[in-house]
Amino acid sequence: MFDSLRNKKSEPTVLSDMLTKQRRYDSLVRALHTDIFRYAYWLIGDKHIAEDVTQETFLRAWRALDSLKDDKAAKAWLITILRRENARRFERKQFDYSDVEQELLEDEKSSTNEEQTEQYWLRKQIGQLEVEYREPLLLQLIGGFSGEEIADLLELNRNTVMTRLFRARNQLKDALESPEVRGQSNG
Amino acid sequence: MDDLKFRRHAYGDPNSQDEEFLAQISASESDAKLVNELKALDSKLTNALNIDVPDDLADKLILRQQLSKHQQQKKHTRYLMAMAASVALVIGLSVSMLRFTPVDLAEHALAHVYHEPKAMNVDQNVGFEDVNFKLAGIGGLENAKFIQQPGKVFYTSYCDFQGVKSLHLVMEGEQGKVTLFIIPTENRMVTEESFADQNYHGLGFQTADTFMLLVGEQDADLQYVKNEIEQTFI
User: Fold this and answer.
1) Span A18-29, average pLDDT
2) Which of A23, A104, B55, B84 registers the highest number of CB atoms within 10 A of its CB?
3) Options 3.30.2380.10, 1.10.10.10, 3.20.20.60, 1.20.1250.20; which CATH number does A111-187 get?
4) Would you say the ipTM is above 0.95?
């Protein structure tokens, strides 16, 4: 009875609202899930947890989709949700995934050639960066954000962000250029 | 741009399009080399960061959202049903409250007399047949009637005693007018045998199926009308 009353008047507009929202969500997922998942992975260091957090992030995004006014800001918005979601994970579970010192990377492909070896090694290096250096770098390289945008997202000032980016690249570059260290950490 | 600032800038964002920065690159070969190295590092890093994304992730994300939407809709429907149910419950309760709360007839009768002053001022000279006709229209009083004229009747109309349809008569007493209410008996009715306020006295009694309430200025009038009714009303 109530259904028929409810449907009579408002169904067409509600339905089209729902459809618009659904389409918006679908395109958000298609366009950004790769970046969001990669960001989550590099932030967290575990594929399964990264997938869970990505799921939670998008579910929250769906529920709050009406609050996203500007689609251009969608990526930053999702990353904000993701960072909050990740922080919540630590509140929920008391045990510590403490960054990425544990085996960050599943050794899926046994390194067959030098390029793969180098990439494997480089991934390990990225994973070993302190999270405060790693995160701005991820935002710049995965997210494509500018210094100001990163500063906004991380609630830091721009100079701090630039300093952290400097240190991050500096460490990685040094590591790449000193083969002994590479040998050690690889061994 | 001094060297330190340049290096900071280059390491911070080797792809910067800042004019001063670009000028420095074109001016100094070694600076250009550094920036190229950093760009090469960035492309290696970007490759390294581009880990494989599970193939079905996008589908999973949409599926999960669809499930949650479905559940929300179900919740919404449940919510509506719950609202409807509680509204119905409230209506049901208040109707039964209205029907089953005790009705103090005495108080109500006095209030009614005050409320309808015109009843005391008209003279319709109603015959007892008319009164019987009206009585027959009241649920519970279909069989009640006057067998003969109970003195003069000035006025008659239906009235409402807290949801109970009853009959309002104005009759002639010895000296003044007396208001008579005839109310079908219900369990929740309570009344006193006699009651009064500053202006009126009242008398209540019960016959077979009805409550009779008399309201008048003089006790004598009330007794007089009561006698008449007892003789004529069955």
Assistant:
1) 88
2) A104
3) 1.10.10.10
4) no
Any long-range contacts for B133-142 (C-beta under 8 Å, 24+ apart)? B134/B158, B134/B167, B135/B167, B135/B182, B138/B165, B138/B166, B138/B167, B138/B182, B138/B184, B139/B165, B139/B184, B140/B184, B140/B185, B140/B186, B140/B209, B141/B167, B141/B182, B141/B184, B141/B209, B141/B210
Tell me whether residues A59 and B81 touch, CB distance under 8 A. no
Closest residue in A to B16 (Cα–Cα): A146
Distance from CA of A113 to the nearest CA of B (A): 15
Do B68 and A166 make contact, defined as CB atoms within 8 angstroms? Answer: no
**How close A61 comes to chain B (CA, Å)?**
10
Residue A148 sits at the chain B interface (C-beta within 8 Å) = no
**Cross-chain Cβ contact A38/B49 below 8 Å:** yes
Confidence at A6, pLDDT banded by 50, 70, 90: low
Q: What is the nearest CA distance from B58 to chain A, expressed in angstroms?
A: 6
Cα(A32)–Cα(A10) distance, integer angstroms:
33
Range of the domain at B127: 103-232
Q: Report how far residue B126's alpha carbon sits from residue B166's, in angstroms, rounded to the nearest whole number.
A: 17
User: What does the alpha-carbon distance between residue A147 and residue A64 come to, in Å, rounded to a whole number?
Assistant: 27
pLDDT values of chain B reduced to their tens digit, one per residue, 234 residues = 788 888 888 998 998 888 888 998 888 888 899 899 999 989 889 988 988 888 889 999 999 888 888 888 888 888 999 999 999 999 998 888 776 666 677 788 888 888 888 888 888 888 888 888 888 888 777 777 888 888 888 888 888 877 778 888 888 888 888 888 888 877 767 777 788 888 888 888 887 678 888 888 877 788 888 888 888 887
CATH code (residue B140): 3.40.1000
